[in-house]
Specification:
The protein is mainly α. It is globular.
Length: 116
Amino acid sequence: MKRHVKQALACSALGLVVSIALLFAFLGPPASGGGASEAIGRLFAMTAIAGLICGWMAGRSGQAWAWPKFAGVYVLVCVGLLVVSTFGRAHAASAALGFQPETQAALLIAVIPDVA
């Protein structure tokens, strides 16, 4: 097994364990089994995709990455995926509630007085 594959697997496994521990430490035990399994599934997907992206990037690099470099890029990719997924869910929730950007802009224009 190549070094970047081992690094990706190790970072993904460690990332999953640390994220689950942080999730339960900050939010406490889950209220239902369904909610816990969904949260763990989302964390697994995020850490696995981040591992795949970093493994692919390290494999395409001309030289082997050191562990600190791989772990740093892995953390950055995890944060990026978390930000993208959070904004995606927030956008979907606002669309479901009926908040459209056009409506918000029209509301702002109607509220701001004409100072000219």
